[in-house]
Amino acid sequence: MLSWMTGLFAGLLGLDELFKQYVEENLEHGEQKEFCGGKLVVRKVYNRGFLLNALDHHPKVVKGASAFAGLSLWGYDIFAFLRRGHYLEKLGLAIASAGAASNIFDRLVRGKVIDYIGFRVKNSFLAKLTANLGDFYLAIGAFLTAIGNIRK
């Protein structure tokens, strides 16, 4: 089981990094491409802070906190994967860890996270939000991990 979870982790991480690299090389800052009848928007946005650019003027704090959170998550991964069973929790952790790794890689290597997925919605605040696959992996992984823990 560990081997397919490792493959899932690597595949998800690679997919997000491929999309980020494509956006970085092929879209100008502020340029947008629309898909699905204009409901899905691909654009290049740099996030130097946390969610909604929180603490973007404190890059050392952001990098340090991100590295600490990532190490903590991966420490829990080791603990969880050494236990028998708990398959839904392990699946969630593999998915969330891929998202964390992708965004932490960006923060530490690029100095910023590349976000590229937006949605055209009526709410102006939500329409301005831009994420990446790693962000979705984190949310989905956290949900699966929580459900796995509840089901115990």
Provide a quick synopsis of the model.
It is built from five helices and three strands. With 152 residues, it is α+β, with helices and mostly antiparallel strands.
Structure report:
The chain has 152 residues and is an alpha+beta fold. Helix content is 64%, strand content 12%. It has 5 helices and 3 strands. The chain has helices at 2-26, 59-82, 87-110, 124-128, 133-151; strands spanning 32-35, 40-47, 113-119. It has a 3-stranded antiparallel sheet. Helix 2 packs antiparallel against helix 3. The protein starts with a helix and ends with a helix.
Main attributes?
5 helices, three-stranded antiparallel β-sheet, alpha+beta, 152 residues, 12% strand, single chain
The percent range for helix content is 55-70%
Largest sheet: 3 strands, antiparallel
Number of strands: 3
**Into which percentage range does the β-strand content fall?**
5-15%
**In what order do the strands lie side by side in the largest sheet?**
1-2-3
Cα-to-Cα separation, first versus last residue: 19 Å
Helical segment count: 5
Strand/helix succession = HEEHHEHH
Question: What is the arithmetic mean of pLDDT?
Answer: 92
Oligomer: single chain
Class computed from helices, strands and strand pairing: alpha+beta
Quick one: overall form? globular
